[in-house]
Amino acid sequence: MQEDAENAVRMERDASAEEHQEEGLVLDLTGSQLHDLQDVELPVTLCELDLTANRLSTLDTRLASISSLCKLSLRQNLLTDASLSPLPEWTSLSSLQELVLRDNKLTVLPDVRIFTKLYVFDVSFNEISSLKGLSNASATLKEFYASKNELTKMEEMEHLHELELLELGSNKFRVMENLNNMVTLKELWLGRNRIRVVNLCGLKSLVKISLQSNRLTSMLGFQDCLCLEELYLSHNGIAKMEGLSSLHNLRILDVSSNKIALVKDIAELARLEDLWLNDNQIASLEGFDRAVAGSLRTLTTVYIERNPCATNEYALKLKSVFPNLQQVDSVLF
């Protein structure tokens, strides 16, 4: 029932967006190399404004009066903290649903308290060092992106209990914390951080998790994520495959570039399609079919190159065992 309700909301939003496009209320100025908007007409009935890849260093004050604006993208511009300081006073924009500030020159999280209906908030690829101020963001937030910044602590997120996607990759996090209330979270992206231990804080609705390029030595911690379909753990220091046997919905498992010597704990998984084991220490393919017995007919892609076992036409050997295999490393069937 909840999923049906969420789908209905999405369909309504998409239909609304299409209606606005038909009415000509969408203005896309992507890549126009604008330094300002003084020669651009900004209708007060505008619903979507895309200013991606320009040279803007200030916000045009006319934006403050476009009360119908739902989506605003200022991605890849030259905006600074001072550039965004007028935002809290532009209360006519309170209905904004998507705000994209990706790839600018921000060092602090902008004040977005006036956007009471915000669904998407993106501040990735800036130089933000703290999430202080995120507590002012609307609890309606569904997607929050803050990758490639200078963040060190997960904080001020406790009220985001409707969040479905959280992207915090390429930062400086050492600890997974303060995620407890995100009971609807489906995607968690934490690659390229400094995390040593998996702590999902009781989250059970996750469908996709990435902890690539961290400092993990164990893959324990995912046992209760029974909805999990995609798990990315490459480029860590993991030596043992464990804690995976309960993940019966898993379709993609990436444990490449670790220290794994034995494939195990996935024999009962019946939906695996992609299995990435390359750049490990697997000595032999003997018993490999038993190790992945549950997904004998579902596996379509296996990466196993740069293991000691990857010799003597290993791709053809695997193809003879797995009837629906379509790819082994770079070999396509």
From TrEMBL:
Keywords: Leucine-rich repeat, Repeat. Residues 1-22 are annotated as: Disordered. Residues 7-22 have a biased composition (Basic and acidic residues). PANTHER family: NISCHARIN RELATED, PROTEIN PHOSPHATASE 1 REGULATORY SUBUNIT 7-RELATED. Signal peptide: none annotated. This is Protein phosphatase 1 regulatory subunit pprA. The keyword Repeat applies. One of its GO terms (cellular component) is cytoplasm. It comes from the Eukaryota.
